[in-house]
Amino acid sequence: MGRERPATDDARRRIHLLMLAPAVLLLCVFFVIPLLGMIRRSFVDGNVFANYASIFSSDVYLHVFLLTFRISAIVTAISLLLGYPVAYLLAHAKAGIARVVLIFVVLPYFTSVMVRTFAWIVLIGREGIINQQLAIYGLRLPFDLLYNEAGVLIGMTYILVPFMILTLYASMRGIDPTFTRAAYGLGASPAAAFLRVFLPLSLPGVAAGSLLVFILALGFFITPALMGGPADITLAMLIEREVEITMNWSFAAALATTLLIVTLIAFAVYARVARLGRLLEPLS
Amino acid sequence: MAAKPRVNGGSELVLEDLCKTYGSVVAVENFTATVAAGEFFTILGPSGSGKTTTMLMVAGFSFPSKGDIRLGGQSIARLPPQARGIGMVFQNYAVFPHLTVRKNVEFPLRVRRMPSREIGPLVDEMLDLVQLGSYGDRMPGELSGGQQQRVALARALVFKPPVLLMDEPLGALDKKLREHMQVEIRRLQRQLGLTMIYVTHDQEEALTMSDRVAIMNHGRLVQVGSPDDLYNRPDNRFVADFLGESNFIEGTVIATDGKAVRVRAVSEFEFSGATSQSFSVGARVVAAIRPEKLTLDRVHPAHTNVWCGRVSDVVFAGAVTRYRAEGGELSLSATVQNRLAIGLLPIGAPVTFTWSVEETRVFGASEKTKDG
Amino acid sequence: MTMETGQQPSAGTWLLRGIVALILMFLMTPVLIIVIISFENSLQLRFPPQEYSFRWYVRFLADPAWQRAIWVSLQVALITTVLATTLGFFAALALVRTRMRTKLVIYGFLLTPLIVPAIISAIAFYMTFAKLGASGSVLGIALGHTMMALPLVVIILTAAFRNLDERYEWAALSLGAGHWYTWSRITIPLAAPALISAALFAFLSSFDELLIALFLSGIRAQTLSVRIWNSLTLQIEPTIAAVSAFFVALTVLVLALDALLAYRTRRRQS
Question: For strand B212-217 and strand B13-22, is the pairing parallel, antiparallel, or unpaired?
Fold first, then answer.
């Protein structure tokens, strides 16, 4: 029986619009307009795409792009490897255990990125804690893990694994357990049931989670800046350098716009794969 | 902002040509009725009939696409709900869960900035009226459904509104409690002289409690009248079918005489019926006769309509027996009181049904039925 | 893998549990270590600490520069919380109760700050508002943080309002209450746990935020995050460990309060 709801009559609509106005206006003034301003700033009078030409013709900048992409891809892969088992366990655990496991995931997730990065600096530096402990046995880490690409990878993975776990968990929860049970019923071993039934069903979630983590990794600034070496410059670090040090705002804007476009495209793909329409469900 | 509380008694409510359309969907069409002051007026209909939409328009949660609503002479159709001063009890009571019973009932008075010393006695009086006198400090979560119902009622009445709306309030209660509450609500309404608009899909409720009932179907007002009017003199097939049960016989008018018509049905079966409409000879009509109006013999001199058939089904139901009989392509059912010790007729036995002209209601055959 | 089959957990299950345990340790250990070594007495950051003391906490809390930073962070976070929660409250309520067909578009629009990388939002904000006096301004930083916190608040509150029966608001209106009266006496009290939750996370997100605060920082407007950043890029000193532990404690506090609220809401519903 459908309960007849009143349509949006004029007075009600006006009230609702008034309620939405402050948030929408604020967002326009302090978010949208600055973004548009930034994009506009990336265009140079006279030679509109001058900045973009410099970016795409220069080896240096292309190197930064490639580095950023490569690091993001590796970090995504490792996060997936580490995150999948945890999400799998979470999806199949009883409520009590799941809650405990989630604490281990959620506490780091909500802790400041800087604090977490600092913790790794303390751990894996040359005089860091890991080396301290190994020194007791007369050992040492065979190679430097800090102030180089290794450090950046470790740090970024650490920050992004919780994202991966939570996204995979959310999607795995939606996988109907009767499929796996049916496989058991047909005589499959646990390993076969997993490989043939669960894993394929989890792939859309894997794609969505990986895209999300990749997008986040592209824009990373804090961790690479703190844990990388002089040669490890990500796109975000480059942008910051152009704003703060070189003060070449126009060029920085061009770099940022490029990153923005890549992010938006990747996000559009993500929205498709993750069927983001469901995020809007609270309203229907 | 809120309307001033009235001293006692209710006001007259006029609903004039109310229409509500959502895009291309017509939810309510040409609803016109005048509810007298102090009247218990029920809007009855199946799901989707538009009764809830009509009530929402009266309450102010939906603005009519066309038409007017006048309370005590003043038009309120364009006023927001909080300015209409109409009391309302919702289907799920909507008792505020974070306030005590007392604070719930106080709510409309506090909104009207009544001083505390005046509020106390009014709330006490209202709680006593709904028999929740000692429950003032309880939280709604501690109360049963019936008790929450009464809190909602007290809350809606405490500011003495001119009109009270109740939207299917008894649906969630069990049978005994429902019957008890029906009596309670009716008693309260009479005592306070309230103008009551009651919305329900339960015909028994509508018939037992109301002064008048408006039956709706597919957004239209199908018939308005007292329960007796509607039950014994239905104007159309839908009402005859919706309230209680009816036998329907289709036929053609072969003679008219002011108030009565002679109808010929299949197999040359002829009978006479009463009608409030006028028909010409040859018009296609439908007659409705309630099963309890049929008797098994010609005891009553008034039962001039006679029909013969053979018993096809017998159901003994304690106080009554329901017979189904077939004959001449017609199938009729009769509900007969088990007064005489004649025993049950066996299946296959010949039987005669008789009934009066007055209890045969005739209306046009083109009337829409419940399903179409 | 589940126990539903009634069998003993297989070797595979134990392997999985072992791997997950290791990964969880990987996640938690750095955070724990930071907190533990903040109690180390000597200048070297050692684990386990050889002597325990509150030395670095004293140094942290007694230093006027750090105190100013805490104060700035607090101000910014409070303004952010108030702004984001208030704006978010009205926006979320309107979105859930309205029948406008554009509501999904507006909802999506309010969530866009989540899509744009933080660095981009930060420099865009900076470039536009630095010259307008936002640089070094607590309010300026707070406005930037409000943009970032608003989507979070809206998501939390739309979920909460969807669970809050609209008929309570209708009942209040039918009894003569106007909108403000209804919102303050009915809607807000009934949605209080979600509101507090949203406020807590808005507060935490502002406190943790670095980029906008970094670009807009001036001598007088360094947030705690910015000060840590400056310390980290110059020289690692043990005080940073104490400050970090402070951040972790704040996170734990927020999560604990949120869990408590959720627990109490669950209990009240049953």
Answer: unpaired
Which C residues, 179 through 218, put their C-beta within 8 Å of a C-beta on chain B? Answer: 181, 185-186, 189-190
What integer pLDDT is reported at residue B287 of this predicted model? 92
Of C176, C185, C186, the CB nearest to B85: C176
Nearest to C174 among B59, B97, B141 (CB): B59
Question: Does the pLDDT value for residue C2 go beyond 50?
Answer: no
- Full strand arrangement of the beta sheet holding B212-217: B74-75, B66-71, B13-22, B25-35, B220-225, B212-217, B40-44, B195-200, B163-167, B87-89
Question: Under CATH, what is the fold of the domain C64-269?
Answer: MetI-like fold (1.10.3720)
Per-residue pLDDT reduced to its tens digit, C201-249: 999 999 999 999 999 887 778 899 999 998 888 877 778 888 889 999 9
Q: Which residue of A has its CA nearest to C208?
A: A112
* Mean pLDDT across A254-283: 79
Q: Do C31 and A5 touch (CB under 8 A)?
A: no
Q: For residue B65, what are the domain limits?
A: 13-232
Whether ipTM > 0.95 holds is no
Whether residue B267 is predicted with pLDDT greater than 90 in this model: the reply is no
- Binary contact (C168, B96; C-beta < 8 A): yes
Burial A67-89 (b: 16+ CB within 10 A, else e): bbbebbebbbebbbebbbbbbbb
* Contact residues on chain C for A108, CB-CB shorter than 8 A: 27-28, 30-31
More reliable by pLDDT, C3 or B36: B36
Phi-psi domain of B351 (left: phi exceeds 0; alpha: psi -120 through 50; beta: other): beta
Enclosing H/E stretch for B362: strand B361-364
| Chain A residues near residue B50 by CB distance under 8 angstroms | 4
Its sign, for the CA torsion B287, B293, B296, B298, is negative
User: Does C9 have pLDDT greater than 80?
Assistant: no
8 Å CB contact of B2 and C176: yes
Closest partner residue to C175 among B97, B108, B141, by Cβ? B108
What confidence tens digit (pLDDT) does each residue in C20-47 have?
Answer: 999 999 999 999 888 888 887 777 767 6
The answer on pLDDT for B59 being more than 60 is yes
| CATH ID of A48-283, from 3.40.50.1820, 1.10.3720.10, 1.10.1270.20, 1.25.10.10 | 1.10.3720.10
- Subunits in contact with chain C (3 or more CB pairs closer than 8 Å): A, B
Domain's final residue, options B206, B232, B258: B232
Q: Give yes or no for residue A68 having a pLDDT over 90.
A: yes
Query: CA nearest C173: which of C165, C183, C164, C163?
Result: C183
Q: Which residue from B minimizes the CA distance to A3?
A: B52
Whether residue B304 has pLDDT greater than 50: yes
> B306 has which bridge partners?
B354
Please state, in angstroms and rounded to a whole number, the distance separating the CA atoms of residues B197 and B88. 9
Note the pLDDT of residue A8.
37
When pLDDT is cut at 50, 70 and 90, the band that residue A283 belongs to is low
In a domain, B332, yes or no: yes
Pair B20, B155 in one domain: yes
Nearest CA in chain B to A10: B63
User: Is the pLDDT at B175 greater than 70, yes or no?
Assistant: yes
Using a CB–CB cutoff of 8 Å, tell me whether B316 touches chain A: no
- C177 CB near a chain B CB, below 8 Å? yes
C contacts of A121 (beta carbons < 8 Å)? 232, 236
Q: Torsion-angle region of residue C44: left (phi > 0), alpha (psi -120 to 50) or beta?
A: beta
Question: Total domain count for chain B?
Answer: 2
Taking CA–CA distances from C268, the nearest residue in chain B reads B141
Which neighbouring-strand residues pair with B35?
B13
C177 CB neighbours in chain B (<8 A) are: 2, 82, 107-108, 111
Q: Where are the domains of chain C?
A: 9-33, 64-269
Chain B: closest CA distance from residue C128 (Å): 43
Neighboring chain C residues of A248 at a CB cutoff of 8 Å: none
* Pick from B330, B40, B26, B88: nearest CA to B197: B40
